[in-house]
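for the writeup, i need someone to sanity check this before i put it in the appendix. the sequnce is what the collaborator sent (i think, or maybe the updated version? ugh). structure was predicted straight from it, no edits. if anything looks off just tell me and ill rerun, i have time this weekend
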Amino acid sequence: MDDPQIHTEIEQLVAEEHELWDRESAGTAGESDRQRLASVKVSLDQCWDLLRQRRALREAGRDAGGADVRRPEVVEGYEQ
């Protein structure tokens, strides 16, 4: 995936996240919505991490294509 594809994926995930939060705040979210929201959050973290990896590789003069999507356990373990 290149940067524009990653940005498109992020935009789609953010739109879905907003829809799920709207359902939650309206009191109409079900358990499957809550599970999907958790999954979307992880996917967003993975996408942002991938963009950061690609940027770091470019800044180091290396091929950004060498960046890989990290496992959920890795990106969810980062401290903010």
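The two ends are 25 Å apart (CA to CA). Residues 22 and 66 are 37 Å apart (CA to CA).
thx in advance!!
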